[in-house]
Amino acid sequence: MQRIATTLAIVAALSVAASCGSAADLIGGLPDASGEGDAGVGTGPGDASADAISGFVEGSTENDTTAAESSTQNDAAPVRGADGAEAGVADGGDEGTVDAGADAGESSATACEAGAAQCRDNTPETCVNGRWQSGTPCSAPLPLCVRGTCSPEPPSCASGGPGLINCGPASESCCTSLAVTGGAYHRTYDSVGLAADGGYGYTATLAADGGPTSEADPATVSSFRLDKYDVTVGRFRQFVAVWNGGWTPAAASGKHTHLNGGLGLANGGSDGGYEPGWVAADDSNIGPTNANLACDPMFATWTSAAGSQENLPIDCVNWYESYAFCIWDGGFLPSEAEWEYAAAGGSQQRVYPWGTADPGSANQYAIYGDAEGNCYWPTGTLAPCTGVSNIAPVGTATLGAGLWGQLDLAGNMWQWNVDWYGSYADPCTDCAELTAAAFRVVRGGLFNYLASFLLAPSRNFDLPSDRYGLIGVRCARSP
Hints:
It is a single chain. By secondary structure, the protein is mostly beta strands. The protein is built from 4 helices and 23 strands. A 4-stranded antiparallel beta sheet has the order 2-5-4-3, with no helix packed on it. A 4-stranded mixed beta sheet has the order 21-20-17-22. The two termini are 36 Å apart.
């Protein structure tokens, strides 16, 4: 492979309208080189410096109510994978650490409340005498453990219908969740960073053999499952119905219970400890009303009644609603380390989720644009973005599949991660940044942004209470 030294222009800051989180308004208005202009997008791989990276801060649309912020090995092939090749789903892998001192049938010494139920490693558990007792692992015809019960489908797809069972070219379940075999990798590589000249771009330098360069910030990730598709409008509609009926997440739910004897992710932040799960004080930050989900007059995908947009990715959801949705659906938000691990192809550390091929303009690898108000979808020709028609149904860019088969890990819609945004903790073993900060991490690129946002190591962030026609959600699950 010929050596490539690529400078990828990137808009590091985009203006935000004061009255609404409009994606149209986010396309204009560059900051000065210090990042002190209009609100923008964080892009540095590991640098949390405010003067280097700015997030969607000023003039953002926030939720109607606010509450206290919650603080919350597989030996991969030594090449980056064939571009556009069919991605296989690996089986097996690390199951996470459990309490070695637990009695037979007891999965962990972690205390619990009588009658509570949860899932661990796709096995239902119930609380008996203050300790979790494991049941029988879920298998066909009820293959999925959801909130402590074996089920044929996550609840968001159980009723069937558009946006629930007809995703991707195979018109399959929109809740399809694929195994990601754990391993080690570097979260920072290919010298992805802000341009040295102080401009609005950053560079990515690739080695002659296509392998990663300038590796830093090592992380180890245990096996987990990551949904193949972003959450659709149709799936989110099911959640809105139960929320309208009074449902809120149970306190401490939403943890990676397959890790660390049920304690969840380790906190890479200064506070130490483990994943807190859902914080009850955040119930008031959930507000998926018709008005809130119509946050962007051009690009909001939600409709008050089911219609032709059920297969589009939901947007205008804040971090709290995204986390609550995944909890209700039997999963959790992925950590940033998990999300990037899947996008990078693990230790292959791919340039893009699909490999090294340029994303092109035909929408086969990713849905993106030029950050100046122009989109490639749906025509394949760069043309002015005009509205929701520039957002593709989930799974449209079929050649963009990652190593384990997930689609839309680059482009179409940013996706919330569980982490607070900050400098990477080194080293990281099943960790996340759980010490409270200002912003939460978003990953994945966007339908109207540059190709440089599609790079697997690139990072972005936003206030957890904000909602835009730019950010959606993808859930992760126990292996």
